Amino acid sequence: MTSEATSRQADQIPADLLAEIEERITHYPVSKRSASLPLLHLWQNHFGFIDDSGIEWIATKLELTPVNIYELVTFYPWFRREAAGKTIIRVCRTLACAMAGSYGLREKFCEAAGVDVHHESHGFGHAPPTSPDGKFSVEFVECLASCGTAPVCLINDELYESVTPEEVPSIVKELAAG
Ligand code: FES
Description:
This protein is an alpha+beta fold. The chain folds into 2 domains: 5-75, no CATH class; 87-177, Glutaredoxin, CATH 3.40.30. It is built from 7 helices and 4 strands. The protein has helices at residues 15-25, 36-47, 52-61, 66-75, 95-99, 102-113, 168-177; strands at 87-92, 136-141, 153-155, 158-160. A 4-stranded mixed β-sheet has the order 2-1-3-4, with helices on one face. α3 (52-61) crosses α4 (66-75). The protein starts with 14 loop residues before the first helix and ends with a helix. FE2/S2 (inorganic) cluster is lined by residues 92, 94-97, 143-147, 150, 152.
């Protein structure tokens, strides 16, 4: 358990997030436990990652034990236990994209964004490799369901299709300019 008592996410839940959580739980009248993943998505969308207090808060809310939530957070790579960069570049590495050059593309993105391509995650559910200035994270993901336009990247919420290594520097430059 690593979070500081002074910056616990559970102490900073805004009213609109709380209302959304309450509403989402009503979708699962038979078993509150089924709301675990939806609540984790809401939490990460708001805070950017899920700290210890978030795990405990969600568990209490759903009448579970913290380990029931912790195991989800550490099982699914989508969930993070640490903050990621402001812009998250997700490069698909599944077959069609891998054959179209996504491994080289990831290296290009890392190079252009100042992210250490050899960075290793410290364990399950940690943040992806992130640039020292905190602007960019680059990570691999599995199929983004756009195999016909491989290689494909998801940058924050926007899909980039048929991406070439040559255009990577200008994409990153535009993103950095905001
Ligand atoms: S393999 Fe990359 S989008 Fe499907």
